[in-house]
Write a structure and sequence with these properties.
Two copies of one chain form a homodimer. Chain A has nine helices and no strands. The first copy, chain A, is an all-alpha fold. The structure holds a DNA duplex.
Chain lengths: ~200, ~200
DNA sequence: ACATGTTCTTGACGTCGTGTCAAATACTTT
DNA sequence: AAAGTATTTGACACGACGTCAAGAACATGT
């Protein structure tokens, strides 16, 4: 076999960066190929199609992001954990310049759009999967908090509420770009959940 | 002057329908032209560009939608009003088959994506404007409720919280497509806001 | 009634993006 | 050293956006 002339993972990172900056439909394989110093045809050979490349790049990101969230949720009082969780969330989709928004939310609204099922359905599942995993993380954190008497509500309902708010924050970030407002909504949500039970 | 051979408003409606079904980037002007029985060139002549056409179609929709929301928020107890508000919100982005999602949220995540400012910035403002108007409507409703003793929290903060949840619902709808779950989150949010003050 | 002017329509064109294919290439294995 | 296999490369087909010049349809002034 002839060996690959590029690093699989490097290309995935470069591709994700482009997709995140310019959107999936707004990024051409020529862009990625130029940036990665690879021929366009090689990308098709290695990844299959643009959307397949995006999916693989996204899943790479999703794994990293989930680990970071897990870490953020892992120490301190329940309030501290939730605060760290929202912090990381907001920081994440405000990284880069201009802010790149939430990759998951953006991908979900952009790719889930087509009528024909095809690969889009696979993408939708990837996005939904990350959201589910995050929801589970938050729920576990709340359950643990409940055992320690820091929380008295229903962990499942509260986790779902929190996740809904984070998705909403991703949208508002795009609409207004006002980080202070996002943080206010986040701390407000924490108060609600901790005082009232979510 | 030679008269137009098509109805301006009809084309706007047809175009919005297509954009809503297949996304902005996923809809070609050829599609719209065929559907409307108009030549592609005529669309460029009348509307300027694809994004300009989308913007005009979106603003048409936004006006109608805002009126419907205003109506939904206009009668009954505060709880009834908020329930009607969430109902209309969820119904709206679950209309069509397959569910078309929230036009505003989808447009926001899809169009705000480009790096260059250009027309995208104009689009972002249109989306942000509708969200602001809706927030104001909810806030007014809460303020009125406060005067009648049905609500004791901060109307501005509560309205922002509610709007954040509706944007989050738009995203979760796309991820899971589970309407029952959306309704559960919505009624939960209403409880929180009314019992605790948002 | 007819010529003039203005706007809309129509079809051809240029450019760019996706995806496919066959030929050339570089390495591994026998 | 030869055969085999996977990768690279460049050409191609196709569709989408947007532009332009030429033709068509109406309003207006004489």
């Amino acid at each position: 076999m002839r060996p690959r002339e590029f690093d699989h993972d490097d290309v995935l990172r470069i591709a994700f960066d482009q997709f995140w900056r310019k959107g999936v439909r707004g990024t051409s394989l020529s862009d990625i190929a130029r940036d990665a110093g690879v021929q366009r045809g090689s990308l098709y050979n290695a990844f299959g199609s643009k959307e397949a490349l995006f999916l693989q790049a996204y899943e790479r990101y999703a794994g990293d992001y989930l680990l970071a969230l897990q870490k953020a949720l892992g120490t301190g009082s329940l309030r501290k954990r939730l605060t760290a969780f929202f912090d990381l969330t907001i920081t994440n989709f405000r990284s880069g310049s201009p802010p790149r928004g939430c990759p998951t939310t953006r991908g979900l609204m952009e790719l889930g759009a087509a009528e024909g099922e095809g690969l889009d359905e696979e993408a939708r599942q990837a996005f939904a999967h990350l959201i589910s995993r995050i929801t589970a993380l938050v729920q576990d954190t709340l359950s643990a908090g409940a055992k320690r008497g820091e929380f008295k509500g229903n962990p499942a309902a509260a986790a779902l509420h929190i996740i809904t708010v984070t998705r909403g924050l991703a949208v508002l970030e795009r609409a207004y770009g006002d980080e202070a407002q996002l943080r206010k909504i986040a701390s407000h949500t924490i108060d609600l959940v901790l005082e009232k039970g979510g």
